[in-house]
UniProtKB/TrEMBL annotation:
Any one GO molecular function term: RNA binding
Pfam families from the UniProt entry: WD40
InterPro entries per record: SWT21/TCAB1_mRNA_Telomere, WD40/YVTN_repeat-like_dom_sf, WD40_repeat_dom_sf, WD40_rpt
SMART domains per record: WD40
Taxonomic placement: Eukaryota, Metazoa, Ecdysozoa, Arthropoda, Hexapoda
Name by which UniProt lists this protein: WD repeat-containing protein 79
UniProt record similarity statement: Belongs to the TCAB1 family.
GO cellular component, one term: Cajal body
Biological process terms in GO annotation: Cajal body organization
Length: 376
């Protein structure tokens, strides 16, 4: 059965005993520009599970579909169907959330990059659909650092230094609602935004000053503090009762916050983060598993239904379910398929080059690739 046909099946449970490599690609990321080191910066499944989106150091978004190999019908391959170039370093990128698009020829991607406005792209033909502009205190166009659609796709939430801006998706331009975060969140950059999947009025923002703000109806409700480094990712559990947060170099823990008892942590999960880049994690759609990349070339998985014994004054640590090698370099991207037992991983990082001997070692250890795995 073709992968795209299987996507129409009902959700299948996953167990994370092991992974089987389905297909991979690396040639599509090769560049001839010697001014920078190419590496991937994450990967994301589309809402319908038909496409994978990647971000990379060369300021390009690439869209891949899974297709049957023309020579060997039993094999699958990742085929690049489009490539979108931004004007600067891409800070964030998201798929439009609805699986039902306006037409078969429109599949939307939102991106933000350095010194540029927010762009809404059609991933099918690579054309620019709309532009949204945030302005700074001197009325010049300013870039934003984080993006998120609300659950209906009708609004766009944008985070930047000391503020949140909310656009109507159907109203491009400079018309927005602005929420200042400078007073309560330490005048810091809003680095990540997540929407609660159950209570649609609640969302969370993370900052590089280590703070997490929980908002309801665009009003700040509470602040969560406890991370040792800047927040790089937030994700709610499927039931909306827990919030998971991850940070960059200096803090290896993914922390689970109990939203029924605000300010309290349920447990943490230990991974390896040795750089300031975003090392992504993801939660299965049934809420049973947490999976994260590591700077060691491995992914770590944890079962989320295990009983956690709490001790007074001692933070509970989630027992590791498995650690599986998947790349020869830092695994910065992990994305679970919305319905099937499939995992996409992306790898790469910047390496310091000092001499020819170090450069040869770097080339040997460098892995810039996108891989698709079957979870078994």
């Amino acid at each position: 059965m073709d992968t795209q046909e299987k996507i129409m099946e009902i959700n299948q449970p996953i167990h994370f005993k092991d992974l089987r490599l389905v297909c991979s690609c690396s040639d599509d990321f090769l560049v001839n520009d010697k001014e920078f080191q190419q590496c991937l910066k994450g990967c994301k499944w589309s809402a319908d599970g038909l496409s994978i989106l990647t971000n990379s150091e060369d300021r390009r978004l690439r869209i891949f579909n899974i297709e049957t190999d023309e020579i060997d019908q039993c094999k699958k391959q990742l085929r690049k169907v489009n490539e979108i170039k931004e004007g600067g370093t891409i800070y964030d990128y998201v798929w439009y959330p609805n699986t039902v698009q306006k037409s078969d020829n429109v599949k939307l991607i939102l991106s933000t990059s350095s010194r540029s406005p927010i762009h809404l792209w059609n991933s099918v033909d690579g054309q620019l659909e709309a532009t949204y502009r945030v302005y700074d205190h001197v009325d010049e166009v300013a870039h934003v650092n984080s993006l998120c659609f609300n659950w209906s796709g009708e609004e766009i939430y944008c985070g930047s230094y000391g503020k949140l801006n909310i656009f109507r998706t159907d109203r491009p331009g400079r018309e927005f609602i602005e929420i200042s975060t400078k007073t309560h969140l330490h005048r810091s950059i809003i680095s990540t935004i997540a929407m609660n999947p159950v209570d649609k009025s609640i969302f969370a923002v993370g900052t590089y000053s280590k703070d997490i703000g929980i908002y309801g109806g665009n009003q700040l409700m509470c602040i969560l503090r406890g991370h040792k480094s800047g927040i790089t990712q937030l994700q709610f559990s499927p039931d909306g009762l827990k919030l998971y947060s991850g940070s960059r170099k200096g803090d290896n823990d993914i922390v689970c916050w109990d939203l029924r008892n605000v300010g309290q942590t349920l447990y943490s999960a230990e991974r390896t983060v040795t750089t300031n880049q975003r090392i992504c994690f993801d939660i299965s759609s049934d809420g049973q598993y947490l999976v994260s990349g590591n700077c060691t070339g491995e992914i770590s998985t944890w079962k989320l239904d295990q009983n956690i014994e709490k001790s007074d004054g001692v933070e509970s640590v989630l027992t590791l379910n498995s650690k599986i090698p998947v790349h020869n370099d830092c695994v910065n991207g992990v994305s679970l398929h919305p319905t099937l037992p499939l995992l996409a991983t992306a790898s790469g990082q910047r390496h310091n080059e000092e001499n020819d001997e170090d450069e040869q070692l770097i080339l040997k250890d460098t892995d810039i690739s996108l891989k698709l795995w079957e979870i078994i």
